[in-house]
Amino acid sequence: MELGQSGTVDISVVIVSWNARRYLQECLKSLEDSPANRSMEVIVVDNASTDGSPEMVETEFPWVKLVKADQNLGFAKANNVGIRLSKGRYVSLINSDVKVLPDCLGTLADYLDQHPDIGNVGPRVLNGDLSLQGSCRRFPTLWNNACMAIGLSGAKHRFFSGEHMQYFAHDREMDVQVLVGCFWMVRKEAFEKAGLLDEDFFMYAEDVDWCKRCWNAGWRVAFNPSAEAIHYRGGSSVNDPVRFAVEQQRAVLHYWAKHHGWMGRLGIGTILFCRSLARYLYGATSRIAKLAPAEEGDNRMRISSACMQALVTNEPTRKR
Fold first, then answer.
1. Contact (CB, 8 A) for 206 and 198
2. Which of 70, 131, 156, 248 has the greatest CB tally within 10 Å of its CB?
3. What is the pTM (predicted TM-score) of this model?
4. What's domain 9-135+170-231's superfamily in CATH?
5. Closest Cα partner for 303 from 240, 239, 255?
């Protein structure tokens, strides 16, 4: 693994991990087996994992720069720790549950070289079975969130598609409003101009917020299907689905308060409550009618109930 001196590294890879040992191991192995054709450094920021992740990195991947936090800093703050330590012209933020496929990093770096007005580029993302995983989004609006809440987004029509661009086949280069934050390659100057990730987002929605600030700062955000990676999903969130659902909701509320004021927050809060109520009722009905396994109905009800409770009690946006 080639490392450069300060200011001479082409690509800095930053990976945040929390109790995702198996995924992190595969992620780092993919970087080791298919390194970019450029100078590269890899920084892992571990959010106080208790599953042996830090020890695994130290033993099996000694070329990785490991940062061991003494507490769970959250996704945004931990990424910022890694970004501040990075030496690369380009900084690639990669989730711990991502497998980097051959030539992915080099292709993205080449793309940034060729398009100096692009601040952030992402690859085509695949599921574990190699089916497409949509990674391009539109900025959230009350309309597209309402479409998602009542199920219209399943029609895969541009007007009803919600934030998810299900009408887009992810088969061509394209400027997009938002790239899902599982895999980015960001020009260092874009971070300098748009700022780092907003640490008031503990996790979730920091990608939407930063892409919006990136565009506002005059940089394009682009999708490049010539580069590919696998995203298994759930490397950390499977550890506590109820907590992570509430964190996701909290992040959405913070985004709306930040960019659309209290009226926007009230509007999205109403939509979120109605959606959670519908999911709770569906979970209860499916359990009673035995339309699905009891455990599935119970999980749906627990998650929906926790989200509604957080909305009713007006749980504040997380602050540090």
1. yes
2. 248
3. 0.87
4. Spore Coat Polysaccharide Biosynthesis Protein SpsA; Chain A (3.90.550.10)
5. 240
